[in-house]
Design goal:
This protein is α+β, with helices and mostly antiparallel strands. Helix content is about 40%, strand content about 15%.
Length: about 100
């Protein structure tokens, strides 16, 4: 069985090519990405396994993801005024 290597969050962030605080911020913003088998806390230091780094790499969107950019381009290029109205149920009384 292959043994997992463990890295501090700073080392893991640099290994992913991100800033040293990337994993700390990701864990705060999206804790569902960090499974308990992939991370552990040793005193004040968080550690992440190779398996955890691979999982995070596969399950995070890449910068400039087309899925996010294309709808924005369509909104900015339109010649019509877009107006989003709240749902009618907000106006109805619940008697």
């Amino acid at each position: 069985m292959k043994e997992n290597n463990w890295y501090t969050f700073s080392e893991g962030s640099k290994k992913l090519g991100k800033s040293h605080s990337y994993l700390y911020k990701s864990m705060k913003d999206r804790p569902e990405l960090f499974k308990s088998t992939m991370i552990q806390k040793q005193g004040r230091i968080w550690l992440i396994s190779d398996e955890g780094l691979n999982y995070i790499k596969k399950n995070t969107k890449k910068e400039g993801d087309r899925l996010r950019i294309l709808p924005l381009k369509a909104v900015y290029k339109t010649k019509h005024i877009l107006c989003f109205l709240p749902n009618k149920s907000l106006y109805q009384n619940s008697n």
